[in-house]
């Protein structure tokens, strides 16, 4: 793990197109601003892990179980 020291309003660059800026520091909390292309997902770790768990559960649904899931697509507008 690379550990960097930054102060408020300073940034780091990841690759060629992701900029992480220190927006604010209050006590033990740091607010980050992340500028990344739309095609790159940016999530807090706990949200990312929840998405991964849900995706794994969805991948384990058997075809016969999936047929019992109601199709509400005709209600979409």
Write a concise keyword list for the protein shown above.
77 residues; alpha+beta
Helix/strand layout:
Layout: E1 11-14, E2 18-26, E3 29-35, H1 45-59, H2 63-66
Antiparallel strand pairs: 1-2, 2-3
Structural features, described:
The chain is an alpha+beta fold. It has a domain at 11-63. The protein has helices at 45-59, 63-66, and strands spanning 11-14, 18-26, 29-35. The protein has a three-stranded antiparallel sheet, with no helix packed on it. 0% of the residues are buried.
**Biggest sheet features:** 3 strands, antiparallel
Mean pLDDT: 89
The sequence of SSEs as H and E is EEEHH
Which class of secondary structure composition applies to the elements? alpha+beta
Percent helix range: 10-25%
* Percentage of residues in DSSP E strands: 25-35%
Give the low-confidence spans: none
If you compute it from the alpha carbons, what radius of gyration comes out, rounded to the nearest whole angstrom? 20 Å
* Total helical elements: 2
